Structure formats: structure tokens, C-alpha cells
Amino acid sequence: xxxxxxxxxxxxxxxxxxxxxxxxxxxxxxxxxxxxxxxxxxxxxxxxxxxxxxxxxxxxxxxxxxxxxxxxxxxxxxxxxxxxxxxxxxxxxxxxxxxxxxxxxxxxxxxxxxxxxxxxxxxxxxxxxxxxxxxxxxxxxxxxxxxxxxxxxxxxxxxxxxxxxxxxxxxxxxxxxxxxxxxxxxxxxxxxxxxxxxxxxxxxxxxxxxxxxxxxxxxxxxxxxxxxxxxxxxxxxxxxxxxxxxxxxxxxxxxxxxxxxxxxxxxxxxxxxxxxxxxxxxxxxxxxxxxxxxxxxxxxxxxxxxxxxxxxxxxxxxxxxxxxxxxxxxxxxxxxxxxxxxxxxxxxxxxxxxxxxxxxxxxxxxxxx
Length: 369
Hints:
Elements: E1 4-9, H1 12-17, H2 20-30, H3 41-50, E2 56-64, E3 67-80, E4 84-91, H4 97-100, E5 111-112, H5 116-124, E6 132-139, E7 156-169, H6 177-181, H7 186-200, E8 205-209, H8 213-232, H9 243-256, E9 262-269, E10 272-282, E11 285-293, H10 302-316, E12 321-326, H11 330-335, E13 338-348, H12 352-368
Parallel strand pairs: 4-6, 11-12
Antiparallel strand pairs: 1-2, 2-3, 3-4, 3-5, 6-13, 7-12, 7-13, 8-9, 9-10, 10-11
Helix pairs in contact: 3-9
């Protein structure tokens, strides 16, 4: 494929201008196909403005033969095992762990007429000599995940992992939680009903959706506190130990709550908080991003019960899907009605050091086996 390829560097001037020159390029590509919230311009623009300039991010635009696409590439140099050096690009990630803690999911390259030749053109256009192209959290149904096999003769294609992404089809569900509960397995139905009954003995269960920005920020702060207590008691730092991560989400809420893209739910048992839920809402889909549940005060499944109230609430708002996103957690499996796959790939140049690394990893796996 003959493609016209343009590479645009992120600069301090672009950050100060709000990336206006990039907005049209991105929107033209993204509007050609359905995409998740992480590919909406408000999310993309905030990400570009919040990631410090010492992390390299380029905008790549490709046009040619009825095809067009745009993507953002992070660039970082990695060292593994002290001896393997890799000049790496990352699709919609930076290659820096602290910034990539946002965990963008359903990764794709938005555009029109995408195929293996377009991906070849993109790889050929990477701005510097490179060793690896990382493709994290790909939507397995979309470009470029749908054509990676066609590049196997030219590059080494490694699948790093594959995760189930669970979701709830909200059709046929209304505000009454029983309309949702009856769709679940007998064991899950019994557990939810029993937990709701025991919790109701302590006070009525209520779900309150934040109706204004100040309430949303209050619910968010309470959720952060509950989330951190839960994880730190188990020996983990918790997602919000990362100040950059927390600041990103506070800014996102401040900018996009009034646009209807941010949902913060406060679930109460009597007068006390049972849980707080933080969702994104985009194109009829509710993306369940984070939560905090009051396990210190309530023993009867506060998380499962909170979600069993949140899902019918969102069905009653007219949304189509409640998406738990990636992760094979028991609560996601038990509460979901459907699932799909998310995949992590790396495209490698066939270089000696990378070949030796793969041989060593396979030998180690055989020894462990």
C-alpha cells in the first residue's frame, strides 16, 4: 500500500494551545468507527496535556488508497535482565509505568479501511530505528489485532497475555434489581438476595447518583479512601497512591462531569456508606472504572450488593452495556451476562538479542513446567 504518512511531535506550544491542530486529525479518524471512552477526544486531550513532556508521544496520521487512520505512540528505551536493550514504541501508552497506570483498554487504531498493509506502512513510518512495538490491551475484534497474523513472516509476533473482559447486556433490565438478579446463576442469585436481606436489617439500601460537580468530587474522595484502605490492608499501595493518577482523574471529573461522561454513585445502607462507584458513560456504554466498598463496616458483600444496585440503575437510564472491562475477577464473572477478549501483543524485529531472550524465557518455562 502507498500511504501518505505524517508524524507530529508533542511540544510545549501544542500543550499550551490545547492540541487544537491535532483535534481535527483525531476526530476524522475516530468518527469512522465505534470506539470506547479512552478514544474520545476529551480523554485523549487530557492525557496528552497531563503526561510530562519528558515522555515522548507522537501523533501518526496515515492516508492512502481509501484508508485513513491516526494513532498516538509513546517512545521509550527499555532495559531487561540488565543485558537486553530495546528501543520500543507503545500504542496509546507511554512506556512509563507511572503514567500507564491509567490502564487504557479496548486499544485500537481508529480509522477507515484498515488492513495488514496499512499496519506495515505504520511500522515502516516509525520515527526512529526500533526493536519492539507494544500493543497493550487490544480489542481483539478490531484493527490492528485483527491482522497481526499476516505480519508473521516479517516480524516476530508475541502474545504476552489475554484477559476476559466481562459485561452486562442491559436489555430487559429495569430499575427493579430483581430484573437483573434473575439473569444470573442460581448461586449468585442466592448470595445477592441473602446479602441484601441481611444488609437491609441494618438500614434501607439506597443508591444516589451525584447530581452536581461538588457532590461528584465528594463521592470520588470517599471512594478513594475506601479503595486505599482495602488494598493497603492487603499489602498493596492502591491505585490512588500514585498522585499523578489521582490528579488526572480529578481533572477529568472537573472537565467532563457536566458533559454527562462521568458517573459517581453513592450506595448507602441506612445512613452509612456501603460503597462508591466511578464509571465513564460514552455512546450508550457504562465503563466501570474504579470503586471503593466499606468492608470495614459491612461483612455482607458490600461490593456485590452495590454493583447489583448500580447495574439496574444504569439500565433504567437507557444505557445498553455495563462493562466491567478486563480482569477475570470472580465478582465480574458472577455478575456478567457476556464477555469478550482483550489481548496484549508485541511486534518484534528479528534481532539476535531478542531471539536469545525468547529462547531463554522458553527454557525457563520448560524448567518450571
